TrEMBL record, chain A:
A GO molecular-function descriptor: ATP binding
Record PANTHER family: MAGNESIUM-CHELATASE SUBUNIT CHLD (PTHR42759:SF1), MOXR FAMILY PROTEIN (PTHR42759)
Alphabetical UniProt keywords: ATP-binding, Nucleotide-binding
Superkingdom field: Bacteria
This protein's name: AAA family ATPase
CDD domains in the cross-refs: AAA
Organism lineage: Bacteria, Pseudomonadati, Pseudomonadota, Gammaproteobacteria, Alteromonadales
Protein's UniProt keywords contain Cytoplasm: no
Gene3D superfamilies recorded: Magnesium chelatase subunit I, C-Terminal domain, P-loop containing nucleotide triphosphate hydrolases
Domain named AAA+ ATPase: residues: 52-196
Record family assignment: Belongs to the MoxR family.
InterPro entries according to UniProt: AAA+_ATPase, ATPase_AAA-3, CbbQ/NirQ/NorQ/GpvN, ChlI/MoxR_AAA_lid, P-loop_NTPase
Statement: the UniProt record of this protein carries the keyword Nucleotide-binding: yes
Automatic annotation (TrEMBL), chain B:
Basic and acidic residues biased stretches: 271-280, 427-443
Regions of compositional bias (Polar residues) in chain numbering: 209-234, 296-324, 445-465
Residue ranges, annotated region (Disordered): 209-494
Residue ranges with Low complexity bias: 253-270, 336-363, 374-398, 475-488
Keyword Transmembrane helix among UniProt keywords: yes
Lineage, uppermost ranks: Bacteria, Pseudomonadati, Pseudomonadota, Gammaproteobacteria, Alteromonadales
Keyword presence, Lipid biosynthesis: no
Record keywords: Membrane, Transmembrane, Transmembrane helix
Domain of life, source organism: Bacteria
Record protein name field: Uncharacterized protein
Length: 335, 494
């Protein structure tokens, strides 16, 4: 494996890169804001994950615009978008694709691979927790390897590839909780809440009138790839690295940095994948702050959405009403 | 150009790191001042200890002591203070990162200086690292022109404990030196008073020996007799030192006219303390035997009030009678004390004392006075029980003499079982217990068939009236049963 050198070799180039990144990011965010009312933190989180090369898990009650958000992103960046509605009877082939017997031009029949809805740039996996574990595991390879293997055929997915999964916390009857291995593959877990009172007025005006909102693409695939490259080139100070390591180790019970509450309420902490996600997301935050290096404050800002779904709480935490967010806040205040 | 700038920035960073390290050292030293002052105050105690040691040395010199005092009070605490601060300053170590972090915190740079210092170490920095260094250059220049704000340290002032420490040690040192100076100036004042008294007494004895001749049969008290007599009269004498001194003077006058033997002189020399000498003089000033016998026959029991009166009246009477007392009383008193002790021992053992002869009776009367005074002091110290006893005693006025021999005489050493029989009378209760033998009582055997058949019906038994709490209890019980059964049904359904 060869390690490619950074494409940004000079300070001027770095300054141009950071300018480009910030401008493109804000343009996409503004365009999405025309359709999605409020939810600025969720929009910024999804775009951060998109630029960092990760996947997002959106959790919220029905009717909050989760599907509309993914649709708006795809239109803004001019990328193909596919939607998979998970049901309990769904099979892995329904997601990955299958070989189908088709009639060729000569009148004969041959097996042709028909890719599934997962083969796209932006994938909306709606109500992912309704699918069976077998179907959910089919998604694991796609999310990690960014390729689909069906039989002897392997199909590489086109960059940029991002899965935005949703799950409904209310309707828990007949659902299958996502396994820790699959949860660990999501960069962020964002909680979508109810809009504010002012946002309700805007929603009514936009959606119940004859107003037709069309989103224009403000970016494209190449720019998104370049943005991802710029994110990878951002430098990280030793102090920031040390802080991130302490934070991730602090989520692991009985480690040297674990707090007493973590030892009491957590059965499984964040993995090394967690620190990778922390660093990537912190780089995006540093770029958005017009800085060339990652600092401790960047890590503090994105610690909760990165780590909340990677900590498995024990029964005592559930019985006493402890949440992963409160434990992470407690940990951050101790550092 | 850029390399020049980079080297300049690097030099500035080095300078900032040095300044930061010096700042931390100064801060550590200033924070340590309170502790250093505490150590210095504790070191002040070295001075009085040195002075005491010097005081005990044979070749003691006041000048040397004063010089040592001044030096130890000035130099030792100052040295301890300075050394403590120096030690802290030398052992305070800070890293380069900590020094730069100080500037970052004070100027609000968000770790710019630390990052710049870190990226300067990279041999081939990337574009972003170069850009980061370039952006930090401005921060470095700002920090170079910035004077670090010292940490707030509470004003240095002596604590109460330090003031007390220092003051006490200074006072003690001065006292030791003054004592030494006075000892040098006035040696007689600091001589041993007991030795002075012994010296004086020896002179008196010597003069008595040289002026008079020893009469046959009149022996001075032996050392053991002195001790016994001393014991019997030690208490009351201690309460009245003024009276004791008067008796001393009268005793001296009596002794000067008396003949003494060599044994007595030796015994007198053996008395080391002033109290012993007082008791010895008291023996000289006893009442005549007829008067003593009258007083002892009139007193039957002790009185705490009369004891104090007696204790005060005793020395007064003795001082008044000092001139009339003779050496025969000395002898009789000594024999009386011996026989008194023997009687006491016999009484404690539960044996009745032997029937006294005429002379022994007179002696016993005398020794009753002695033991009475001794027991008087014992009873004063033993508390209210003796007060109650004294209330029942026949007080014969201020002249009554104590006759009881103490509470120990009332207690028998032989253990006896308590006996409870009969009914208590109107007076003081006296109960005697006895073991009663168990008696067998014959049982009449009863056969159920011999009772005959019951003709009449058993009749309806009246239910006893239930109280409210019983009804409530039953109601709660059956309700609980009903709820439990319903809960079980629901659980089964689920």
């Amino acid at each position: 494996m060869t390690i490619s050198a950074s494409t940004i070799s000079t300070a001027d180039h770095a300054e141009h890169s950071i300018l480009f990144f910030c401008e493109t990011f804000h343009a996409i965010k503004t365009e999405i804001g025309k359709m999605i009312v409020g939810q600025e933190a969720v929009v910024e989180g999804v775009l951060t994950a998109l630029c960092a090369g990760g996947h997002v898990l959106l959790e919220g009650v029905p009717g909050l615009g989760k599907t509309m958000l993914v649709s708006a992103i795809s239109r803004s960046v001019d990328l193909p978008f596919s939607r998979i509605q998970f049901t309990p009877d769904m099979m892995p082939a329904d997601i990955q694709g299958a070989s189908v017997l088709l009639e060729n031009e000569n009148g004969g029949h041959e097996l042709t691979f028909q890719p599934g809805p997962i083969v796209s740039n932006l994938v909306l996996a709606d109500e992912i927790n309704r699918a069976t574990p077998k179907t959910q595991s089919a998604l694991l390879e796609v999310m990690q390897e960014k390729q689909v293997t069906v039989g002897k055929r392997t199909v590489k997915l086109d960059e940029p590839f991002c899965v935005m999964a949703t799950q409904n916390p209310v309707d828990q009857e007949g659902t299958y909780p996502l396994p820790e291995a699959q949860l660990d593959r999501f960069l962020f877990k964002l909680e979508v809440g109810y809009p504010s009172e002012q946002d309700y007025h805007t929603i009514i005006d936009r959606t119940t009138s004859g107003l037709n909102i069309e989103l224009k693409p403000v970016s494209n695939r190449e720019e998104l790839i370049r943005m991802r490259t710029i994110v990878r080139d951002v430098s990280v100070s030793e102090a920031a690295k040390a802080f991130a390591i302490k934070l991730v180790m602090g989520t692991q019970p009985h480690s040297q940095y674990a707090s007493p509450s973590v030892n009491e309420f957590v059965s499984l902490g964040a993995s090394p994948r967690g620190i990778q996600s922390l660093m990537l997301a912190a780089k995006v935050v540093a770029l958005l702050d017009n800085r060339f290096e990652v600092m401790e404050q960047d890590i503090r800002k994105i610690a909760i959405p990165v780590l909340r779904h990677r900590m498995v709480l024990n029964f005592k935490a559930q019985a006493t009403g402890q949440s992963a967010d409160s434990l992470i806040k407690n940990l951050l205040s101790g550092f | 150009m850029q390399s020049t700038k980079a080297s300049q920035t690097e030099l500035q960073l080095n300078l900032l790191a040095q300044r930061g390290a010096a700042f931390f050292r100064r801060a550590a030293v200033s924070c340590h001042r309170h502790k250093a002052m505490d150590y210095a105050c504790r070191a002040l105690w070295v001075s009085p200890l040195l002075c005491v040691l010097l005081f005990l040395l044979p070749g003691f010199s006041v000048t040397a002591a004063i010089a040592l005092l001044v030096m130890s009070l000035a130099i030792i605490p100052a040295g301890v203070y300075a050394f403590s601060l120096l030690f802290v300053g030398l052992t305070t170590k800070t890293t380069r990162k900590q020094s730069l972090a100080l500037y970052d915190n004070q100027l609000g740079f968000k770790d710019d200086l630390q990052i710049a210092d870190e990226f300067f170490q990279i041999k081939a920095p990337t574009g972003f690292e170069q850009a980061a260094l370039a952006s930090c250059r401005i921060s470095v220049e700002k920090a170079s022109n910035h004077e670090l704000v010292p940490f707030p340290v509470r004003p240095h002032s002596l604590t109460r404990r330090q003031k007390v420490f220092g003051g006490l040690s200074l006072l003690l040192s001065v006292l030791v030196v003054i004592t030494a100076m006075l000892r040098t100036e006035f040696p007689s004042v600091f001589s041993n008073p007991a030795e002075a008294d012994i010296t004086e007494f020896e002179e008196i004895v010597q003069s008595a020996l040289s002026s008079t001749s020893t009469a046959p049969g009149r022996n001075r008290l032996s050392t053991s007799e002195n001790h016994n007599a001393r014991q019997s009269q030690h208490g009351p004498d201690a309460t009245n030192p003024a009276q004791a001194e008067k008796s001393m003077e009268s005793g001296d006058a009596a002794e000067s006219g008396a003949t003494t033997g060599s044994a007595g002189a030796a015994a007198a020399k053996a008395v080391p303390e002033k109290a012993q000498k007082n008791s010895e003089l008291r023996i000289v000033t006893k009442l005549p035997p007829p008067l003593m016998a009258r007083l002892t026959s009139e007193n039957s029991q002790t009185d705490s009030g009369s004891q104090s009166d007696n204790s005060q009246a005793g020395p007064q009477q003795e001082s008044q009678q000092a001139d009339a007392n003779s050496k025969d009383e000395n002898k009789s008193a000594s024999t009386d004390s011996n026989s008194a002790q023997q009687d006491e021992q016999q009484n404690q053992a539960g044996q009745p004392p032997a029937a006294p002869s005429g002379q022994q009776q007179a002696q016993r009367n005398n020794k009753k006075q002695d033991s009475g005074k001794k027991n008087g002091q014992q009873q004063q110290s033993s508390g209210s029980q003796q007060n109650s006893n004294s209330q029942n005693s026949n007080t014969q006025g201020d002249d009554a003499q104590k006759k009881s021999r103490g509470i120990n005489q009332l207690m028998l050493a032989v253990p006896m079982e308590d006996q409870f029989i009969g009914t208590p009378g109107p007076g003081r209760e006296k109960s005697i217990t006895e073991k009663q033998p168990s008696e067998e009582k014959p049982m009449t055997e009863t056969i159920s068939a011999s009772r005959g058949q019951t003709v009449q019906s058993a009749q309806v038994q009246q239910k006893p009236a239930t109280q409210f709490w019983e009804k409530q209890m039953l109601s709660d019980f059956f309700q609980q049963q009903h709820q439990n059964s319903q809960h079980n049904e629901n659980a089964n359904d689920n």
